[in-house]
Specification:
six-stranded mixed beta sheet, mainly beta, 15% helix
């Protein structure tokens, strides 16, 4: 199996075709995603995971704002940091080298790659997802990655490899 095919097969997500819809803006609703990736409606935590997944399937970020988009309406919501958290990861065997597959707090899976790169913002790691969204990397995952990473002796960079991609976690 070619690396491109493997990367596509590692993607597991369920997002509606929001890019094909152009509904009217209907204002802001009291839906909030906190810094831990928990969803709240009118300050009450939404505990039903299926409902969170439904909302996540129509969530997009545009120009720094977050919206839920359906064929009938576009509503703005608030997000404290990133709407999702990378809570798990595993190394998947690939032809060139192992690929890191990340799993978010809602069960979506992505291969760490050029399409879904690791970003470091203010010393905090994130994975760039589709629709302008990001997932913050949980501290436990980050520490596991640091342990699995290698150090480039020329630059003293802590490097994490996934397939043919190379991501810098930090510097020594």
């Amino acid at each position: 199996m070619q690396l491109e095919q493997l990367l596509k097969s590692l993607e597991l997500r369920n997002h509606a075709p929001t890019d094909q819809w152009d509904p009217p803006y209907c204002g802001e609703i009291p839906l909030h995603i906190d810094e831990k990736g928990d969803w709240f409606y009118q300050n009450s935590r939404i505990k039903r995971q299926q409902l969170v997944k439904l909302f996540a399937s129509v969530l997009v970020q545009e120009n720094g704002d977050f919206f839920l988009i359906t064929p009938a309406e576009r509503v703005k919501i608030s997000v404290a940091d990133a709407p999702f958290i990378v809570t798990e990861w595993k190394s998947v065997t690939a032809p060139e080298s192992p690929v890191i597959q990340v799993t978010t707090n809602i069960g979506s899976q992505y291969p760490l790659s050029e399409d879904y790169p690791l970003l470091i913002k203010n010393a905090v790691p994130y994975v760039q997802l589709d629709h302008g969204l990001q997932a913050k990397v949980h501290r436990n995952v980050y520490y596991q990655w640091v342990e699995a990473a290698t150090i480039d002796p020329e630059s003293d960079e802590v490097v994490l490899k996934s397939g043919t991609s190379r991501f810098i976690l930090g510097q020594i």
